[in-house]
Amino acid sequence: MGHCLNWLFGRGASVASGLTWTVPKEWESLGRVEVIGKIKRDLSLKMDEATTSVYRKFLSILAKKTQAEWRHRFITTNWDYLLQKTIDEKPDEELPWRLADNWVYHLNGTIESLPDNSQRSPFLLESDPSDQRIVSFEANDAYNKMIWDDLFIVIGMSFECQIDKGLLGALRRVEDDMPVGGSRWLILDSSRQTLERVAQNIRSALPRSKIKTVQNRFESWVDSEMLELIDLGIMIA
After folding, report:
1. Residue 237's pLDDT is what?
2. Which of 55, 67, 141, 197 has most Cβ atoms within 10 angstroms of its Cβ?
3. For the domain that residue 123 is a member of, what is the CATH number?
């Protein structure tokens, strides 16, 4: 059986693609349903202005250099679907054939509209309490795979809002019994303070985990061909 590297993408990956849009503070006084509608409309427009070049290079490197026994799984808390769009647009010969799944798990919902969204995660706001998350096939499937794995990379995700902290809380509940309890984590962010906060959040949930931090932007790390993955034995030099 092969090994799987779980990639957890937060806002830092979207920023690397030129998608710097954030929810305006003046929307805080609006109703939840209205805010979600506005987010879907505005973010869809901003996605049209973004580039997928970073994701294209990222996928190409994985396709060329991943060791035969390794697979990749992509999980995000972002609402945009730039990574999925890149996967869908790339010719088959340029895609990492070693993907564990051919889709991106969106734990907090997505602005993408599909013919059948019945199995997708509901749309969640950063301001939502943790109990706003309800069971969905998508999030449940991702979680049930994560708890059996022991290697994770966090790209620009802070686990600061209650919704995202809930994910670590769910992992904490099984950490004594599942491989995730002794997992290894590589955290990438351009901010040293953010790296320290993320490491502490993970360590609090999974005290037996081993954590390494890399202070860098996602696009710069991709340009360097993600050398830490060679040290981990995931990619060839």
Report:
1. 86
2. 55
3. 3.40.50.1220
Assigned domain for 237 exists = no
Q: Is residue 236 part of a domain?
A: no
**Average pLDDT over every residue of 57-76:** 93
Specify the higher pLDDT residue, 3 or 115.
Answer: 3
Please count the structural domains in the chain: 1
Long-range CB pairs of 197-205, under 8 A, 24+ apart, other chains included: 197/158, 197/160, 198/154, 198/157, 198/158, 198/159, 201/158, 201/159, 201/160, 201/165, 201/168, 202/154, 202/159, 202/168, 204/168, 205/168, 205/169, 205/171, 205/172, 205/175
Q: What is the pTM of this model?
A: 0.93
DSSP string of 196-210? HHHHHHHHHH-TT-E
Q: How far apart are CA 235 and CA 64, in angstroms?
A: 9
Rg of the chain, C-alpha, whole Å: 17
Q: Is residue 210 part of a domain?
A: yes
